Amino acid sequence: MSVQDLILNLHRFWAEQGCYLAQTYDLEVGAGTMTPDTFFRVLGKRPWRVGYVQPSRRPDDGRYGENPHRVQKHFQYQVIMKPSPADIQDVYVRSLRSLGVVLEDHDLRFDEDNWESPTIGAWGVGWQVLLDGLEITQFTYFQQCGGIDLSPVPVEITYGLERLEMFLEQKDDIYDLDWSADVTYRDLRFREEKEFSEYNFSVASVGMLRQAFGACQKEAARLIEKNLLLPAYDMCLKCSHNFNLLDSRGAISVTERVKMISQIRALVNDVARRYTAVKEAA
Amino acid sequence: MEFLLELLTEELPASHIRSALGQIEAGFRKELAAARIEIVSLRTLATPRRLIVAADLAAGQEDREEVVTGPPLAIAKGPDGALTPAGKGFARSQGVDENLLEAIRTPRGEYLGFKRKAKGTPAAEILKETVPRILAGLSFPKMMRWAESSFRFSRPIHGLLCVFGGTPVETSFEGFKATDETVGHRIASPGAIKARNFAEYKAELEKSFVVVDPEARKRTILTQIEDALAPLKAKVYPDPVLLDDLTLNVEHPLVVFGSFPEAYLSLPLEVLSTAMREGQKLFSVVQDKKQLPYFLGVADAAADGKGLIRKGNERVLRARLEDARFFWDQDRKVPLKERAAGLKNVIFQEKLGSYEDKAQRLKKIVSYLCDKLKAAEIKAETIEAAGLCKADLLTEMVKEFSGLQGRMGGLYAKQEGFPAAVHQAIYEHYQPGSLEDASPSSLAGAVLSIADKMDSIVGVLGVGIQVSGSSDPFGLRRNAHGVCKVILDRKLRFSLPLLLDKVLAVYGDRLTVERGAVKASCLEFFAGRLRFILEKRGFRYDLVGAALGPGVHQAYDALPRVEALDALKSSPQFEPFILMAKRINNILKGLPAAKVNPDIFVEKEERDLYSMFSIIRDNAQPMIAQGDYARAQGIYFKIQPVLNTFFDKVLVMAEEKNVRQNRLGLLQSINRMLLGIADYSQVVVEGEKPAKPKAPR
User: Fold this and answer.
1) Does residue B544 form part of some domain?
2) Contact between chains at B10 and A103 (C-beta distance less than 8 A)
3) Average pLDDT of span B506-525
4) Please, what CATH class does the domain formed by A204-281 belong to?
5) 3-state SS, residue B514
């Protein structure tokens, strides 16, 4: 099964569970959780089911294409089910079977892991799902997002597509994966990893990034005042990515790090607060 | 009658299971005792998805005899002994035959009344109420909500099996009606199972690949590990914490034995075992203290017939070891000295500054300690180690595996060719991590360990952060235990108050609490910790109290002091000696200090006592100075007969003031001398009421 077959399978499976299939969001994010299809939709009362592929950028994980397991950009398959269905673990297990995994031959484990993302004021309780010791999914009952208690509680299922594919293809090197019948992961991504690692670690202009961080931060605050919350949230995402780049450039001290994360969180929490206020009023 | 309860949930963390089982057992014991249901036996079991109670309970409350009293006998019966209208009315209202009425004697006089049997409530009725109450009352370290409910629990709930005497109890919990059904293993056999008693439950689940008894699972794991390693003549590196956790992580344990490429054996042992344990919960395999390229994992599966679980784990471990090798290679590209420069950006504590500030303080503290311990030969190396010991906080390896801090720095320093004293001191300076952990094996490591911990304790208390029963955010208790343990293990003799003065001086004006107060609270803190450690070592609490009586000026001396008391406690001289010491203490209580002048003694006995005291003092002093308390104590015993004669023949509270003051002065001098070993008045002897102090925390 190729990566694209895997994606097609998951699309079909989750569409059958009533998920709307969203398209990838067009900004750099660290995780599928951060896109509006999750962030805004887990707030408030309205039930929501969505599945989508989201590239996830973690500049610090770049390895110049030399490490067979770590990349500065990978792909997540993100599912949100709100409220969390009672049989969601069974549904998830069925999704693995639908990929052709004979679970009776393997060791599937739900291993305690409480997820949190301080940048967007979010945390949840759940597990990392391990298949023969390999972490293939983050499974989280979302408790809070944007600093707001969530009710009903959504469940978030995030598959690491490359990890899962390495398991399915029984391969040791991410670059050997087949994206389709005749395109490999190496064809698509190797050069990108090499160049972006160079950029993330050594070349990115610290001055420009600092400026951009400040500018986006200001813009977010200005947009919040005008109640343009979706554009304001985009600005927060840009702040977050600029912050990650600065971090991988080694330009952020530990104290500064805490401060910058709390600056972004304050804006995000503000967006969430106003968004729920407007929605509940409407 | 048999009682069986199973709460079926999604996978619970091991720590939550342990906490829940304790609460459940305590809950049932308390509730059933209050409800007068006898517990013949009760035990709790668990798997990651099940909290289980198996018990043998009485069928119900015992029937009881009740006494019902009515009007006073004088009103209820006439002089002829016949019932009055009031007496008849009582019988009627209670629906009781008049012949059954009798006189009931009470403290307030005699009343008309009768006795009747009250039927006990069946246990099933009581369980109906207690089961949901106990389950709803469980609390967990971290709780969650799910779906649309506001109920909080460890993980979502899926079912309640609750059977008493073979039939389901009529109860429910969070919308789940109690049944006699559950399900098997999530993957291997997820179908429904019926169980009316524990034997059936256990057997049916075993068929469905669930072993409900954690002890049985642990035995299986150990046996399978042994079987796997027998041909290799190798041993698993013991890790009881990991074993306990894995036991609670699986319903059907299956030990998986795998290997990794020998090339990774070039990584340090510490890195290999941490990557295996922390990263992937694997046991490492050793032979004569050498790591072998194998691992043991515990899967939750029926079998690994195709070897896929083993291969999968091997693949994941290879990736982790590859990462570790990447960190090991990358980290060594930057010398520790260069890396240490970055410590100015890492905050130790907001008010106490960065780790660079801490490193500078440590240099001064270890320099002082080396002087005090007359360890000139390692002074330069220890100072160098102090400057470098925190640098590994900035290495990739420690960022990935924080448990390796200190040890990584030591390993990197060794690679860089630093002298043994330097890299060993860095390696060992977090030791001991607990009272069970070993102290540093090198003197430089011991000095740096003490300095690091003292710096934290003084600093944190010095900015007004308090340690209380449940709150100890900087682990000061663990730090103080570490300091005490190193001092005791290595027999380090130096003045604790002077060291505190030094650390306070090094902090300068960074601290917000006044110096005298910080010093006092540190000394009190250390006295408390020493008491805890010595009592934990099995010394009698009152002997520990007596040994700590003279103070913790020389922290190490608390140990030989209490050992001396302990060794001599059964000697025939001990008890009279203690009583005598208490007598002196009582006489002197509350009196102002007086001077002794040997020239104005009146009686022979007081002159004798004075000269005996002088001899004993002069002989014991050098022994005490060397810490030989057992011998000094032996000499102290000699004062007792002379003192006895003194008390027999001489009136201390003499009429004449001069004489009286002089005698009191003599006793005070003796008391001071005694206090050089212990505060004997705290020792409890036969016939005295023991006044055990509140258990120290």
Assistant:
1) no
2) no
3) 92
4) mainly alpha
5) coil
- pLDDT value at B290 more than 80: yes
A151/B148 touch (CB, cutoff 8 Å), yes or no:
yes
Do residues B409 and B447 share a domain?
yes
Could you tell me if B439 and B485 are in contact, meaning their C-beta atoms sit under 8 angstroms apart?
A: yes
Helix (H, G, I), strand (E, B) or coil at B433: coil
Residue of B8, B9, B11, B221 to mutate, testing the A interface (most A Cβ within 10 Å of its Cβ): B11
B347 vs A: CB within 8 A:
yes
Query: Over the stretch B447-499, which tens digit does the pLDDT of each residue have?
Result: 999 999 999 999 999 998 888 776 777 888 999 999 999 999 999 989 999 99
How far from each other are the two terminal CA atoms of chain A, in whole angstroms?
46
The domain of B647 spans 555-682
Q: Provide the residue count of chain B.
A: 697
pLDDT at A193 over 70: yes
* Top CATH class, A3-200: alpha beta
Q: What is the mean pLDDT of residues B664-685?
A: 88
Does the beta-carbon distance from B326 to A111 stay under 8 Å?
no
- Domain identity same for B454 and B519: yes
**Using a CB-CB distance cutoff of 8 angstroms, which residues of chain A are in contact with residue B208?**
none
Hey, is the C-beta of B249 within 8 angstroms of any chain A C-beta?
A: yes
| CB interface of B with A, residues 42-71, below 8 Å | 48
CB contact residues (below 8 A), chain B span 277-306, against chain A: 280, 282, 297, 299-302, 304-306
pLDDT at A281 over 60: no
Mean pLDDT score of chain B: 91
**With left for phi above 0 and alpha for psi between -120 and 50, is residue B430 left, alpha or beta?**
alpha
Give A84's contacts in chain B (Cβ within 8 Å): 146-147, 156
Summarize the confidence of residues B35-51 as an average pLDDT. Answer: 97
Least CB-CB distance to A105: which of B48, B249, B308?
B308
The alpha helices in A132-228, defined as continuous H runs, are 161-169, 185-198, 206-225
pLDDT of residue A279: 59
pLDDT in tens, A48-85: 999 999 999 999 999 899 888 889 999 999 999 999 99
CB of B14 less than 8 A from some CB of A: yes
DSSP 3-state assignment of A116?
Answer: strand
Other beta carbons within 10 angstroms of residue A232's beta carbon come to 23
Task: Assess whether B607 and B678 both reside in one domain.
Answer: yes
pLDDT digit string (tens) for A199-249?
A: 999 999 999 999 999 999 999 999 999 999 999 999 999 999 999 999 998
Looking at the structure, tell me whether residues B448 and B321 fall in a common domain: no
Give the residue among B162, B159, B158 at the shortest CA–CA distance from B195: B162
- pLDDT, residue B695, reads 45
Q: Where are the domains of chain A?
A: 3-200, 204-281
Chain-chain contact of A127 with B11 (C-beta, under 8 angstroms): yes
Interface size between A and B, measured as CB pairs under 8 A: 114
Question: What does the pLDDT average to over B230-255?
Answer: 94
- Residue B468 has a pLDDT of 78
Name the strands in the sheet holding B2-9, side by side, starting at the edge strand that comes first in the sequence. Answer: B39-47, B50-57, B2-9, B157-164, B167-168
Q: By CA distance, what is A170's nearest residue in B?
A: B312
